[in-house]
Write a structure and sequence with these properties.
The protein is an alpha/beta fold and 483 residues long. It has 19 helices and 16 strands. α15 (300-311) links the parallel β7 (292-296) and β8. The longest helix is centred in the C-terminal third of the chain and has 32 residues, at 451-482. It is globular. The mean pLDDT is 94. Its cofactor is [4Fe-4S] cluster. GO terms for molecular function: 4 iron, 4 sulfur cluster binding; metal ion binding; oxidoreductase activity. It holds the Pfam family Pyr_redox_2. Residues 151-458 form the FAD/NAD(P)-binding domain.
């Protein structure tokens, strides 16, 4: 083992790519971290202990071959590392940027448990695939032999795009339908550029378009075609719309101008970053410049909103969360980044009313205390009587999570069965909905979740759709022979 490039975690400390200074990065929407240089990526990959049971892989929804491509990186065999990384993920450089590695692979790294600091897996993953794009190692999507069958995919987010790629490679004609004017779903319009620069997403989508996948952008099922019409046009359908219905707050004044939804705010910001004309920026309704901004929520969407507000030039930015720091659902790294950039967190606080008549002028809040654990296992927040006070606010952003839209009604498909949470009901053995040949994957089945889980679902549903389509083709061939 003397000449092994691995097991260097004792003598080599944990290091992440250098972050730009907070004052510098708060002035633009570029990513906050620089990428590794080759030597640094190899050095950090060499810290991997190559353990017998790789918890990093087992806690990755995609079960990426992490120790193997870390070893290849440490040995300078970067192209092989990329090819291995690409075997299990359709978007490794995107996952490397936005996965909460501290809760998944890195959080379960064996050397993290030993006190030496986890291998910086996400940063190495990002470096490997960015290098592959730069060097021309990312191969075009080549369609398989034409099977004479077509598939319609509703939703151009990570689940839909993953399935589209795999089915096209298997030889199917693939059509992707999406309501937005650009594909990518939340990757394009929900995640700010400082976490995921948009050319990273657009080059992935362009690769799919170049591979013959047909995109129908600005297309709404129920408006431009019914579900039944799409079923008649295609041999199988995948619903991968995600969940977009914003959860609301029940409090007096919540409908006042200036109280806005997180996704509306983030979408407007991302459209502006593309250079689009955004009327809501011109009239100030979805723009934070010069305003006292209050964001309500403690998840990753709330972190995106507070950090976007800073970059738009807000006068002040406060984040209200009803639990404490230890019990918040968002990434602790994101909280640290936000604090560095000037966001103030107001822990154990919840809104009880919104002040102002013509427009919002403040948020009346109450302090909270943590009681007994609830069904989720976290201690339930309870109001602390007599602790009410007000915060000045010109713009209030609600970032309380997302629920499914009413798809049976929207799609004109009343036979589409849903659960009591509004997610699509599927047979988990086949991932098929109550409609024959209509499958579902991603957040519309599991509820609001992570991009990496959407990719996993897209990968899994591909196998089920492929089996269904082969059986359908065989049955059709049998009918022809019988005739």
């Amino acid at each position: 083992m003397a000449d092994s490039p691995m097991l260097k975690f004792v003598g080599t400390g944990q290091a992440y790519p250098e972050k730009r200074a907070a004052d510098d990065r708060a002035g633009d929407f570029n990513e906050i971290s620089r990428t590794f240089v080759t030597e640094k990526a190899e050095e950090q990959a060499s810290r991997c202990s190559q353990c017998g049971v790789p918890y990093c892989s087992t806690h990755c929804p995609l079960h990426n071959h992490i120790p193997d491509w870390l070893r290849l990186t440490a040995e300078g065999r970067l192209r092989e590392a990329y090819e291995l990384s690409n075997q299990t993920s359709t978007m490794p450089e995107i996952c490397g940027r936005i996965c909460p590695q501290d809760r998944l692979c890195e959080g379960n790294c064996v050397i993290e448990f030993s006190g030496h600091g986890a291998v910086t897996i996400g940063s190495v993953e990002k470096y490997i695939t960015d290098t592959a794009w730069k060097e021309g190692w990312v191969e075009p999507l080549v369609p398989g032999a034409d099977r004479g069958q077509s598939v319609g995919i509703i939703g151009a987010g990570p689940a839909g795009l993953t399935t589209a790629e795999y089915l096209r490679a298997a030889g199917y004609e693939v059509h992707v339908y999406d309501r937005h004017d650009r594909a990518g779903g939340l990757l394009t319009y929900g995640i700010p550029g400082f976490k995921l620069e948009k050319d990273i997403v657009m080059r992935r989508i362009q690769r799919l378009k170049d591979g013959g996948i047909i995109f129908h952008e600005g297309f709404e099922v129920g408006r431009d075609a019914t579900m039944e019409q799409l079923r008649e046009k295609h041999d199988a359908i995948l619903i991968a719309t995600g969940v977009y219905k914003a959860r609301d707050i029940r409090a007096p004044g919540v409908g006042a101008p200036g109280v806005v939804k997180a996704l509306d705010f983030l979408t407007a910001s991302n459209k502006a970053s593309f250079g689009d004309h955004v009327p809501e920026h011109e009239d100030g309704s979805l723009y934070a410049k010069g305003k006292n901004v209050v964001v309500i929520g403690g998840g990753d969407t709330a972190m995106d909103c507070v950090r976007t507000s800073i970059r738009q030039g807000a006068k002040s930015v406060k984040c209200l969360y009803r639990r404490d720091r230890d019990n918040m659902p968002g990434s602790q790294r994101e909280v640290a980044n936000a604090e560095e950039e000037g966001v103030e967190f107001v822990w154990l606080t919840a809104p009880i009313a919104f002040e102002g008549t013509d427009k919002v002028t403040g948020v009346k809040v109450t302090k909270m205390r943590l009681g007994q654990p609830d069904a989720s296992g976290r201690r339930a927040p309870e109001p602390d009587p007599g602790s009410e006070f007000s915060l000045e606010a010109d713009l209030v952003i609600k970032a309380l999570g997302f629920d499914p839209e009413e798809l049976p009604r929207l799609f004109g498909a009343e036979d589409l069965s849903v659960t009591r949470w509004g997610t699509l009901r599927v047979d988990h053995r086949t991932m098929m909905t109550s409609l024959d040949g209509v499958f579902a994957a991603g957040d519309i089945v599991r509820g609001a979740s992570l991009v990496v889980w959407a990719i996993r679902d897209g990968r899994d549903v591909t196998d089920h759709m492929h089996a269904y389509l082969k059986a359908k083709a065989a049955a059709k061939a049998g009918e022809r022979v019988a005739a």
